[in-house]
Please model this.
Amino acid sequence: MSSSTRKTTYDGGSGAVYHPLHIGRQVKIYPIQEHELRTIGVFNSMMVLWCSVGSSAIALLLSCIWDMLLSADPAGAPAVLFAVACAIVAVISFCLAMYFRKNKSDFLEQILKETEDGANG
Model:
């Protein structure tokens, strides 16, 4: 490498042009208390938890059914009992997920009913 220096010059030519763009919009702001946000968060967490449990149970159930179909030996009572247990767990889990979803919707509806519209009042 040579120790020569590079000269950088600026000839004042045009480059990228920056045009600021300001956009406005009107939004409604609802006064929601912190404990209400926590409650909504808990409902969301419980819904995700039970959907995950139900999905895992369905995956296990399908795995058991696939194994039973490909197996040369007939399925024994424990395998069938496990498959039935997975089905029951899946149904209960998805019912619980729907329960928490409905509770969250009802809770949000209650918050919106209690909120006064300041634009009309």
